[in-house]
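Structure ticket #2291
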Amino acid sequence: MGWRTGFDVKRIRPVDVVARIGPRPLLIVQCMDDAVVPPANGERSFQAAAEPKSIWRIPSGGHIAGHSVARQEYERRVIEFFDQSLKPDGP
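Resolution: structure written out below.
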Protein backbone atom coordinates (compact mmCIF):
# COMPACT_ATOMS: atom_id res chain seq x y z
CA MET A 1 0.00 0.00 0.00
CA GLY A 2 2.86 2.36 0.74
CA TRP A 3 4.12 2.45 -2.83
CA ARG A 4 0.60 3.22 -4.09
CA THR A 5 -0.26 5.97 -1.63
CA GLY A 6 3.10 7.13 -0.35
CA PHE A 7 1.85 6.48 3.20
CA ASP A 8 3.92 4.32 5.54
CA VAL A 9 1.41 1.77 6.90
CA LYS A 10 3.79 0.99 9.76
CA ARG A 11 2.87 4.42 11.14
CA ILE A 12 -0.78 3.38 11.59
CA ARG A 13 -1.35 2.90 15.32
CA PRO A 14 -5.01 2.30 16.20
CA VAL A 15 -4.18 2.46 19.90
CA ASP A 16 -3.38 6.16 19.45
CA VAL A 17 -6.89 7.03 18.25
CA VAL A 18 -9.23 4.31 19.47
CA ALA A 19 -10.27 6.24 22.60
CA ARG A 20 -11.72 8.97 20.38
CA ILE A 21 -14.18 6.55 18.75
CA GLY A 22 -16.40 6.46 21.85
CA PRO A 23 -19.22 6.78 22.50
CA ARG A 24 -19.58 4.93 19.21
CA PRO A 25 -19.64 1.14 19.73
CA LEU A 26 -16.45 -0.76 18.95
CA LEU A 27 -15.98 -4.45 18.23
CA ILE A 28 -12.43 -5.77 18.01
CA VAL A 29 -12.04 -9.19 16.39
CA GLN A 30 -8.63 -10.70 17.10
CA CYS A 31 -7.32 -14.02 15.82
CA MET A 32 -4.89 -15.27 18.41
CA ASP A 33 -2.47 -16.69 15.79
CA ASP A 34 -2.20 -13.37 13.95
CA ALA A 35 1.46 -12.60 13.19
CA VAL A 36 0.66 -9.35 11.33
CA VAL A 37 -1.32 -7.70 14.13
CA PRO A 38 -0.29 -9.58 17.28
CA PRO A 39 -2.95 -10.22 19.94
CA ALA A 40 -1.15 -7.83 22.30
CA ASN A 41 -1.99 -4.98 19.89
CA GLY A 42 -5.69 -5.87 20.00
CA GLU A 43 -5.56 -6.00 23.78
CA ARG A 44 -3.90 -2.58 24.00
CA SER A 45 -6.51 -1.09 21.68
CA PHE A 46 -9.31 -2.67 23.68
CA GLN A 47 -7.93 -1.29 26.94
CA ALA A 48 -7.56 2.18 25.41
CA ALA A 49 -11.06 2.23 23.94
CA ALA A 50 -13.99 3.92 25.60
CA GLU A 51 -17.30 2.17 26.22
CA PRO A 52 -19.24 0.67 24.66
CA LYS A 53 -16.65 -1.81 23.52
CA SER A 54 -16.25 -5.54 23.10
CA ILE A 55 -13.54 -7.89 21.97
CA TRP A 56 -13.79 -11.35 20.50
CA ARG A 57 -10.64 -13.43 20.70
CA ILE A 58 -10.72 -16.22 18.12
CA PRO A 59 -8.46 -19.02 19.41
CA SER A 60 -6.93 -19.84 16.02
CA GLY A 61 -6.37 -18.24 12.67
CA GLY A 62 -3.96 -15.73 11.26
CA HIS A 63 -4.45 -12.19 10.04
CA ILE A 64 -7.99 -11.52 8.78
CA ALA A 65 -8.80 -15.25 9.02
CA GLY A 66 -11.66 -14.96 11.52
CA HIS A 67 -14.36 -15.48 8.93
CA SER A 68 -12.55 -18.50 7.52
CA VAL A 69 -11.94 -20.29 10.82
CA ALA A 70 -15.21 -19.43 12.59
CA ARG A 71 -17.64 -18.50 9.83
CA GLN A 72 -20.97 -19.03 11.60
CA GLU A 73 -19.86 -17.47 14.88
CA TYR A 74 -18.21 -14.59 13.02
CA GLU A 75 -21.35 -13.79 11.07
CA ARG A 76 -23.55 -14.13 14.15
CA ARG A 77 -21.39 -11.82 16.24
CA VAL A 78 -20.89 -9.18 13.56
CA ILE A 79 -24.59 -9.09 12.66
CA GLU A 80 -25.50 -8.89 16.36
CA PHE A 81 -23.01 -6.04 16.83
CA PHE A 82 -24.52 -4.07 13.96
CA ASP A 83 -28.08 -4.85 15.03
CA GLN A 84 -27.35 -3.49 18.50
CA SER A 85 -25.13 -0.61 17.41
CA LEU A 86 -27.31 0.77 14.65
CA LYS A 87 -30.51 1.06 16.64
CA PRO A 88 -31.92 4.60 16.43
CA ASP A 89 -31.66 5.03 20.19
CA GLY A 90 -28.14 3.52 20.35
CA PRO A 91 -26.74 0.57 22.26
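Closing remark: The chain has a mean pLDDT of 90.
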